[in-house]
Design goal:
Blueprint lengths: L2 H25 L11 H11 L2 H35 L1 H16 L6 H8 L3 H25 L3 H9 L4 H35 L8 H10 L3 H29 L1 H12 L1
Helix pairs in contact: 2-10, 3-4, 3-6, 3-8, 3-9, 5-6, 6-8, 8-10, 9-10
Length: 260
């Protein structure tokens, strides 16, 4: 990717958020509503509340829980997706059950998970993993099912099997679908990270936002919401950066097909 293309994408990524913040700034400038303070007041509280110490004590634990749950879901989801996508029998047996569990909203499972995992970090990690698992698993299974049959026959002709076939053909062919599922799971994971911290927590971004709300510190509460949105945006851009480089061959192939 050229430097010009990277700069153009960065500008496009920040344009809409900047416009929305500008609209929020001017629309709320004269607000006297206790629950909808001016953006200027929120930003002032933002710099006062989210100090390096507060970021270390509340935001860092949230990010660590999110990372642990997300990685756990990625490992389990890809492994199960490879198995389900590769075996028709296994797919026929498990698909109805997988669809059933996918239809259950993950926040509903929080009280259930608390019963056997307690109220510590383990519970929060499992909550994040339980929601992130399904898009990764199902997208991986679909990606494996969509492996090019011609390439599969070529592997058989050259006696490429086992781990070599799995690594060089199956995972490589399914990687666009796998990363699509991981992108979907990231947004779900951020939501569940916050929800899990609203239950019997002593730190974390979700816990802090709820504490501000309960103490009627409304500008501080909005500053937490703003920080959460900023974190989501930065994580999304980080994931996109990794995805572009991991799938450089795929995007290059698509551009070649469009140009031909």
């Amino acid at each position: 990717m050229s430097a010009r293309t990277a700069v153009r994408r960065a500008l496009l990524a920040v344009t809409l958020p900047a416009v929305l913040l500008a609209v929020w700034w001017f629309a709320s400038a004269g607000s006297t509503d206790f629950y909808l303070p001016p953006l200027a007041t929120i930003l002032e509280r933002f710099t006062e509340v989210w100090t390096p110490d507060r970021l270390r004590s509340d935001v860092l634990p949230s990010l660590l829980r999110l990372t642990a749950g997300y990685l756990l879901a990625a490992v389990v989801g890809v492994a199960l997706g490879l198995a389900v996508g590769s075996s028709r029998i296994l797919r026929d047996v498990l698909e109805p059950v997988l669809e059933l569990f996918r239809a259950v909203p993950p926040p509903v499972l929080v009280p259930v998970i608390m019963l056997f995992a307690g109220i510590g970090d383990t519970m929060k990690i499992i909550v994040v993993a339980s929601g992130c698992l399904w898009p990764i698993l199902l997208n991986t299974a679909e990606g494996v099912r969509a492996v090019d049959s011609v390439l599969d026959d070529t592997c058989r002709s050259y006696a490429i099997s086992g781990w070599s076939r799995l690594w060089h053909l199956v995972l490589r062919s399914a990687s666009p679908q796998i990363l699509t599922g991981m992108r979907q799971a990231l947004s779900i994971g951020i939501i569940l990270m916050v929800i899990s911290e609203m239950f019997a927590a002593s730190n974390g971004l979700g816990f802090t936002i709820v504490q501000f709300q309960r103490s009627f510190a409304i500008p501080e509460m909005w500053s937490g919401v703003l920080l959460l949105g900023l974190l989501g945006f930065l994580l999304s851009q980080l994931f996109q950066f990794v995805e572009i480089r991991a799938l450089a061959w795929y995007h290059g192939s698509r551009r070649a097909q469009r140009d031909s």
